[in-house]
Amino acid sequence: MTSQKSYKTFTVEITNKVAHIIFNRPDALNSMNVDFWHEFPSVIHDINNQSAARAIVISSKGKHFCSGMDLAVFSENKSDTNIELGRKQDQLRRLVLKLQDCFTVLETARMPVLMAIQGGCIGGAVDMVSAADCRYCTSDAFFSIEETKLGMTADVGTLQRLPKLISMGLVKELAYTGRRMPAAEAKQAGLVNHVYDDQQSMITAVLAIAAEIAARSPLAVTGCKEMINYARDHSVSDSLNYMSVWQSGMFQPQNDMMEIFKAKAQNRAPEFEELTQIDTTKIF
């Protein structure tokens, strides 16, 4: 099972259908080193493909949530100086696309992903949390698009996803200046759902929200996620049409809905089938 694997950059706990991924490199400010970029998409894919959980919570140990990308990632991927310039730049482009995919997995995962953020959420960490379904933070948290301070443009998802979450003008200000956006402003802007006094109360609350999600029909929840994400990127007309297609295929009232009615009549919690597992080793 996913929970039995060992990772260098985080731990994974799966309890009562909730997967809790905990970044565990506090001395390095939970920076995204080379190991992270290999391990993170792998664990999300595993949880998704195995239907190992119905919700995912991501948090971290230490004072800061995540300081962003470890620049050693780029030094590790230095290309041969003898490569022709166009091919060398194509190689860099493909590296960026690969890094982007590492966070896109949060959107394509069938279960909701909730972020619990304390302290600094910097650079690449903003790219990551922007791809999650919901964000929660402590009162000492801050968000910073740091890339312009380094002479580069954020390239792993912040500039594409953040304008869907907060106002365009605020995104531009944050990106151009690299200033820190504190928790209270993030809440007011709609980036985070709630601000908590401390990390422990936040973790407790976010895990409780995840447990509430996990108690619902996993098929209904994944339908919500897919429809909301689709509506974000398409017109209302296209989204309504896609909703009709989804509902005509996935809505089976004789299953989950009838189970809810039976459970209410019997004064018990409903029991739902898990989403089917995905065997990536087989084509058919």
What does this protein structure show overall?
It is found in: Peroxisome. One of its GO terms (cellular component) is cytoplasm. InterPro entries: ClpP/crotonase-like_dom_sf, Ech1-like, Enoyl-CoA_hydra/iso, Enoyl-CoA_hydra_C. It comes from Shewanella psychromarinicola. It holds the Pfam family ECH_1. This protein is α/β, with parallel strands linked by helices and 284 residues long. It folds into two domains: 2-214, Alpha-Beta Complex (2-enoyl-CoA Hydratase, Chain A, domain 1); 216-284, Lyase 2-enoyl-coa Hydratase, Chain  A, domain 2. The protein contains eleven helices and nine strands. It has helices spanning 34-50, 72-76, 85-108, 124-130, 158-161, 168-177, 183-189, 199-214, 218-233, 236-250, 256-265; strands at residues 10-15, 18-23, 55-60, 113-117, 120-122, 134-138, 142-144, 180-182, 194-196. Strands 1-2-3-4-6-9 form a six-stranded mixed sheet, with helices on both faces. Strands 5-7-8 form a three-stranded mixed sheet. A hairpin with a 2-residue loop joins β1 and β2. It is globular, with a radius of gyration of 20 Å. The mean pLDDT is 93.
Distinctive features:
2 domains; 2-enoyl-CoA Hydratase, Chain A, domain 1; Lyase 2-enoyl-coa Hydratase, Chain  A, domain 2; three-stranded mixed beta sheet; 9 strands; globular; alpha/beta; single chain; 284 residues; 46% helix
